[in-house]
Design brief:
This protein has about 400 residues and is an alpha/beta fold. It folds into 2 domains: about 280 residues, Aldolase class I (TIM Barrel, Alpha-Beta Barrel); about 90 residues, 2-Layer Sandwich (Alpha-Beta Plaits). The protein is built from 16 helices and 12 strands. It has an 8-stranded parallel barrel, surrounded by 9 helices. Strand 3, helix 4 and strand 4 form a beta-alpha-beta unit. The relative contact order is 0.14.
């Protein structure tokens, strides 16, 4: 498994003055193209799952594909939930397998942005998950981005950035210095002096959203002035769309497989260009050596239930427990089982998969867990055996 701690990854980029690409994943062709680009460039990579895109695919299924791709990768990967709408959606993302979350509350008044981000940090850090905050506002100017990010641009100030980072505890900060979501209209004008002041004022890595449409020189200046992560989607969507249109113009009766046949390669080429330009190419080995590997934990609980209880009562207890434990942040999956051959000490088991070591500690202290154990499980299963282990795959 090559999924690594996202905060470690971005801090490595900050320390060594390059930027990691956080590429939006729209489908399997995007995933395969970006992963091949990262392998070819020997680059760390962040795979972004953007909540506004979830209407176009099954989020949980795509995350499974992403983690499967990461498990066979030789380069470091982080899986980030991007531009979420609520703490509940961030919990869902962590449960699905993301090890970084960003809930966008940047359009709110500063005080509301701070307290809502602080709540997300508290929840996510208890699961060992990296949190990106956003201060200032990056609007969308064209197409779907104008609907997803309405309103006017609001620049980030260095003074507010210091207070925001200190009061929320975010691991990295997305700032507004003149970029926009979606496609640029005219020549982009970036405030490098503002960026330099923010970089000097805050200690966490800085992120820029709306990377599509910038020139090579602008990317170099952004990185030289402290940007450590660049979100990038629209340009990938554009090269994919251009590829499909070109195939259609060549063969108007071509079937679906023909029309999309070049998308993977088009996305790969654009991602490779970015990785080489942003300085993350060739960094895979040192990032793997210096970053903590992201691994889930599994808790096994073996126990008996008195023979006096009926099968329906036992089923009810197990079902109630599953529904209660699944609500705890950081719990990925809860399964129950019954022994096949009843000649051993224990007859029933629980298999609880958790996001991380931190998630296990938070799980043990969570009211939903304590209530279930004290009021239900203790009353019917006084003889129990518990084993916690780290997953190796």
């Amino acid at each position: 498994m090559s999924i690594v701690n996202l905060s470690n990854m971005i801090n490595h980029a900050k320390q060594h003055k390059y930027a990691i690409g956080a590429f939006g994943i729209a489908n399997l062709q995007f995933l395969e193209g970006i992963m091949q680009a990262a392998e070819n460039c020997r680059s760390p990579v962040v795979l972004n799952l953007i909540e506004s895109h979830f209407e176009h695919y099954d989020f949980e299924l795509l995350v499974q594909a992403i983690t499967a791709a990461a498990s066979r990768a030789s380069i470091p990967v982080a899986v980030n939930f991007d531009h979420g709408k609520s703490i509940a959606s961030a919990e869902r993302a962590i449960r699905a397998g993301c090890n970084g979350v960003m809930v966008d509350t940047s359009a709110l008044p500063l005080s509301d942005n701070i307290w809502q981000t602080r709540d997300i940090v508290k929840m996510a850090h208890a699961c060992g998950v990296t949190v990106e905050g956003e201060l200032g506002y990056v609007p969308g100017v064209e197409g779907e981005s104008s609907k997803q990010h309405p309103g006017e641009l609001a620049y980030t100030s260095a003074a507010e950035a210091v207070g925001f980072v200190e009061r929320t505890g975010v691991d990295c900060l997305a700032i507004s210095i003149g970029t926009v979501h979606g496609r640029m209209k005219g020549a982009p004008r970036l405030d490098y002096a503002r960026l330099a002041k923010i970089r000097e004022a805050v200690v966490v890595p800085l992120v820029v959203h709306g990377g599509s449409g910038l020139t090579d020189d602008q990317f170099r200046r952004l990185i030289a002035n402290g940007i450590s992560k660049i979100n990038y989607y629209t340009a990938l969507a554009d090269v994919a769309s251009s590829c499909i249109r070109e195939k259609f113009s060549e063969d108007r009766k071509g079937d679906h497989s023909v029309l999309v046949s070049g998308v993977r390669d088009a996305v790969r080429k654009e991602a490779e260009r970015c990785m080489q330009l942003w300085g993350c190419g060739g960094r895979a080995a040192e990032v793997l050596a210096q970053c903590k590997v992201w691994s889930n934990l599994e808790r096994i609980v073996l126990h008996n239930i008195p023979a006096s209880l009926s099968e329906s009562e036992i089923t009810s207890i197990m079902s109630e427990g599953k529904e209660s434990l699944k609500t705890i942040p950081g719990v990925i999956k809860v399964r129950t089982g019954k022994v096949v051959k009843e000649d051993g000490r224990y007859r029933y088991c629980w298999l609880i998969r958790l996001a991380s070591r931190e998630a296990l500690e938070a799980y043990k202290m969570h009211p939903a867990h304590q209530l279930f154990v004290s009021k239900i499980l203790h009353s019917v299963a006084d003889d129990r055996f518990i084993l916690d282990f780290e997953c190796l795959d």
